[in-house]
Fold each of these.
Amino acid sequence: MIPYGRQDVDAADIAAVIEVLQSDWLTTGPAIARFEQAVARRVQAAHAVAVFNGTVALHLACRALGLGPGDSLWTSPNTFVASANCALYCGASVDFVDIDPKTYNLSVAALEHKLVHSTKKPKIVVPVHFAGQPCDMRALGALAKKYGFAIVEDASHAVGATYLGEPVGNCRYSDIAVFSFHPVKIVTSGEGGMLLTGRADLADKLRLLRTHGISREKSQIEGGWYYEQEDLGYNYRLTDLQAALGESQLRRLDEFLSRRRALAARYDRLLADLPVTRPWQHPDGVSSWHLYVVALERNQDRRKVYDALRAAGVGVSVHYIPVHLQPYYRKLGFKPGDFPHAEAYYARALTLPLFPRMSDLDQDQVVEAVRKAVA
């Protein structure tokens, strides 16, 4: 089976992890700071804070920005549930903004319309860089200034992407950006996440919250054993083992991006004569191509196409079931028809395999299977 995504771990990655295993530190050691500094340099961010995964990164971002009961977070329905759940973890409410039918990202026009006509404004908006394509952050940043909300970029798909010629994650138009290093993402640390911010106060708060809310600032005064719990935090720390793998993987980021972009361009050529809609790319950004999603024609039975491809050894998937259609969110009052563009996209979407070690022969097999399945 050709999977839709797969990690690419080489000998250098393995050696980096072994080096940590043979060191004095398996967790809370120097590899974490090195990983943070490497990511911050790569995306030109002032501060980077490593955590255990992308979901806890979203949670900490909301906590650091003061989200709580009585507040609201708005995000895209075309995302994994974590982009919305992070608000509920804080006791806040969630609402959604429909997507742009071309980019599949949160629609700026829909957001502006909702802001104008809603009596309750959001405290945080979470735009999701779906499949690696950047959102229109300049326009979102302008709305944030006008209406007074914070922005947390869910850039889990977008490590290595650029927007207006600058790296996604530099937080020029946002308060915090979040990366994920899950095995199917652009680079992996096994599990892992990273928060980027340009604000020192937020970075300090994030570091406090990821380690139980404990500070050792007074240890030099009171004694080396001394610590104080200043907030109700969590054990959301990354280990040195994961950080070492992540830093090693980051050195190969350009290699990964080059292959992903070459495969995406090749898909564009090979699928040009088939009855599928290929992913459209906005000229303001350069995608990291975490996913390659096609849309089937309306007369195609998506389930039949999906089953035929899986039977042919092609591990297609679907990203994503709109969050508001999940049973848990329906209990909160959301229903079919609330966000029609996201629902129309979902009804036709199919994610094709894309990963750095995918060969041209693998890709030819995928395209031939698609050709037969949609015939």
Amino acid sequence: MSDPLKPYDGIVELDNVLPPWWLGIFYVTIVFAMVYVLGYHLFKVFNLQDAEYKAETIALEKSIASTAQKNQIQSTVAAAAQTVDLEAGKLIYSKNCTSCHGPAGEGGIGPSFNDSTWIHGGDLASIQKIIREGVLAKGMLAWGNLLRPKEIEDVSHYVKSLEGK
């Protein structure tokens, strides 16, 4: 007679118990799958990727719009205040700068402000830096110790307004 546990090919089938750690991972995976399907697809408690993307895009667009609105308000306030600044800047310019740059910014000893060619940069930050630090190699004094920051800002706005005149 042959033994039922020993088949003819020598392979024995044993009904062993699976290790507890493996069973734990298996059951956790089943629970996770159920929560995922129920939460994301059936009851829609959680957002899928495309819905999250759309929500973030809308929030970003609102943020950009509010930032643009704030910038527009600030530029409007700055434009309203600039008329006062230009008058103060013109006064400072006529007192300190006309001897080298001319009364209308036409140049002379110093460069002209009436054209679009700027030696050291024509944006406001560059103009303020030149006024503050000067260009000693070209004979431009540093006015940073003589003028207050507000006065430097006023005169730089006035100098920039002379461009193209």
Amino acid sequence: MNENHISKSSSRGVLVGVLLLAVVVIAGGIYFISRGGSGGSGNADAGTTPITVAQWGQERYLIYLPLYVAMEEGYFEQEGLDVDLIFTGNDDQTFAAVLGGSAQFGIGDPAFAAIANQRGSKAQVIALVVGGVAIWGVTNNDSVEVIEKPSDLAGLRVGTFPSPSTNYTLMRALINDHSEELSGTSVVEADIGSQLALLESNSADIAMVLEPAASVAESEGYRVVYSSPKFHGPFAFTGVTTTTTFVNQNSEQTAGFVRGLQRAVRASHEDPSIAIRVGRSLFPDLPEQVVQNAVRRMLEENTFPDDVTVNAEAWGALMQVRQTVGDIRDASLVAETVNNTFAEAAKGP
């Protein structure tokens, strides 16, 4: 209440103002309690439990459509969860938010849960959100051919997200594995979202981007010359990470979150128009055809998983890459990181 709106000469006006202020305070207190206070587990009578999800990057990306479909179509709400999304930057920062308690779940590179376990933490990967390396290389250089094998990258400058992102790590691992033929290949790091600028400034020959950036670039005359999903095959690119403590103390909420994701994945595969509709609503400035192309690319190239279980092949591919660059010393030491209990239950028979 603004005191300039209260007449100083009218006691009745003051009384009305005080009563209105009291109503606001009481209403605010009721809302605060219904939200579970400052970071509480919520009030069962309110019907939903507040959940904070930390997502890689600084904005929404179409590669995370399973998460957005579950949010926008009300699947989480129907599981009793009120999901709030925060953006946390690079993969290490995303998982740090989970470990620090500012988020209950992380959406990012699941390798960081394994790395945390290697250091003595208790972390888990409970679901898969992106089942292939959802990054595509685009170029404005007519001399760059379609990349079909490692040797095709020889001598090229490849623009990636900054270390220790999955994008950067994969390219470094590829160069390490083919060191002789790729001795002249270089990785050019740039801030998230600045990869196309590398092409415009002639600082890179290929820029690695996510969706919808790949389809937007394509619509503007760039060529997609590198498909990471085809190049790397099944890969645990993005998972749902959390702490063992949270799972043990909140198994019902954990199960509900995974069920919501599984429902979103299944619905989108059965009816791609659902994912396209959600994509268009979240990216209203993009042409409809761009969104359609992006969603179809993800479905056809299998970055949009069939289900949310973390399969052994995809997890093994991730661990092998992280071992190559030295982040994981022994994959067997972090075997307990993956917990498919909730995903298997959500998938059903």
Amino acid sequence: MRGLDRLRGAVGDLERAVVAFSGGVDSSLLAWAAHDTLGRDAALAVTAVSPSLAQGERQECAETAASLGLRWREVVTHEMELAAYRRNDPDRCYWCKDALMEALGPLADEERAVVALGVNLDDLAEHRPGQRAAAERGARFPLVEAGLAKADVRRLAREVGLPTADKPAQPCLASRLPHGTEVSVGALGQVERAEARLRALGFGEVRVRHYGDLARVEVPLGDLDRLLGVRGQAVDAVRAAGYRYVTLDLDGLRSGNLSPAPGA
């Protein structure tokens, strides 16, 4: 059976769905499949709003949802009120997803629906305690149930014409803080401002790792020379966000490199 047919089958089993919609390719494909398979009245895409969501990403969620004709809304999550989340231990994502499910639960009850998250097969091999929190609260992972890895998701997204098919991964802003560094609104804002300024210089895929007054900038290896070519502008951009020192990681961008290895 084709991947798209398997996904339709997994989504169809839900009958009604509330899809956690972050605007990335995984949640976009899942939201599209729910809308297309179940119908608009039975599928609701919901974007969680908190200090860890960059304003640019929030706007893109709204635009993507509108372009796909999704029934969409925002909901505020309150993970910043949890000391266990702010402490930023390796299980931080558990508390983030727990807060997400706390916010989505009433909507799912209202919709008489199941909460669905855009987790793919590759995610299962990574350190993502948030998946456990979501599963404990009854969430379903239709992409996993359909046997779809990240490459499959991108291929299907292109096949159905999704605007996010080639969108780079954009994890939450808290992922830029090393474990043990307290998550604060101030730190998240610094990261957001620094990355926004670097994107304005033409670097679409970038991470600014936060170490107090030092920022460690990561871009894909293919962009290192280009970043060095505008070194002065890049340094000014990051310092304008509130950092004193700016460093460049010569290993390039590695998504999730501040997370412990699975099983660690």
